[in-house]
Design brief:
Rossmann fold; 9 helices; 2 domains; single chain; 8 strands
């Protein structure tokens, strides 16, 4: 029986960014068996000493994101003295930025967690997006940075939530067969509206899984292919009537990929502003 290889992530912040980078890298190695352990708020030398000793006992790889030069130096020393493989994810980045910007880094952990204007804007965006989910409050659409349209199970809510955490107020409006859109949809900037479409077979599979998860009978037409085709055709007819709405195919796409396409269009249209980075070291 193979035992998982341990990876220890040490950060003076939350460790979220470092862990994401590690897991992104691990996706490139098929069949790997790895246990990733993240230790946040490592700000004292004695913490480093403890964790590198643990790593030595477990023969673990240690990955660090430490903004303090003193702590980075200590981590390198502990790695050498304990014969531990160590990767410093932030040292080179800070060095390059220091040279390029001709400024010295503050070396203060947790700066990304400060409750600044960007932070509160993201909170406001999340609150708005929850309120405007699934067409619940059409009157609020005039506040939206982005409006999503699509039939049920085209990832409107997950995409809205993902974009909200990036600081965008997102409204989403469901398309239901033969049901008209709310009047407010046509009173807002049409360049901010995006249409989502999906392959009918994929949609049927998703809807069947949804019905099963909810314990609902298959007697409803929600997952009936004839109904799905009619609903998608109705949606397509609406999209054709409004060519200014970009249509994004979501079949097999991750939410992040769909969001990147959408934000690229907004950027090309000059409708996007920096919203701050919600990730943290």
């Amino acid at each position: 029986m193979r035992m998982p290889k341990p990876v220890i992530v040490l950060s003076d912040g939350t460790g979220e960014t470092a862990e994401k980078m590690v897991r992104a890298g691990l996706h490139q190695f098929k069949g790997h068996l790895v246990h990733v352990r993240t230790q946040a708020h490592v700000t004292r030398p004695e913490q480093l000493m403890t964790w590198f000793r643990v790593a030595a006992r477990q023969n673990a790889l240690v990955i660090t994101t430490l903004v303090s030069e003193t702590m980075r130096t200590r981590a390198a020393e502990e790695a050498a003295s304990n014969d531990v493989v160590h990767l410093d994810l932030i040292s080179d980045l800070l060095g390059v930025l220091e040279s390029y910007l001709e400024l010295s880094p503050a070396e203060i952990p947790g700066l990304q967690h400060q409750a600044d204007e960007t932070y509160f804007r993201r909170i406001e965006a999340v609150e708005y997006t929850i309120k405007a989910d699934d067409g619940k409050d059409p009157r609020a659409l005039h506040e939206a940075h982005i409006v999503l349209l699509g039939v049920s199970r085209t990832s409107k809510t997950p995409l809205s939530t993902y974009l909200a955490h990036k600081g965008f107020k997102v409204g989403n409006v469901p398309i239901v067969l033969d049901r008209p859109f709310p009047d407010q949809l046509f009173e807002i900037d049409q360049r901010r509206i995006f249409a989502l479409t999906i392959d009918p077979d994929a949609l049927q599979e998703i809807r069947r899984a949804r019905l099963k998860a909810m314990g609902m009978a298959r007697s409803v037409n929600y997952d009936d292919m004839a109904y799905i085709l009619a609903e998608l055709e109705y949606a397509e007819s609406l999209f054709r009537a409004h060519r200014e709405w970009p249509v994004i195919e979501v079949t097999g796409r991750a939410v992040e990929e769909t969001a990147a396409i959408l934000l690229g269009v907004l950027n090309d249209r000059g409708l996007i502003e920096p919203t701050g980075d919600p990730s943290q070291l």
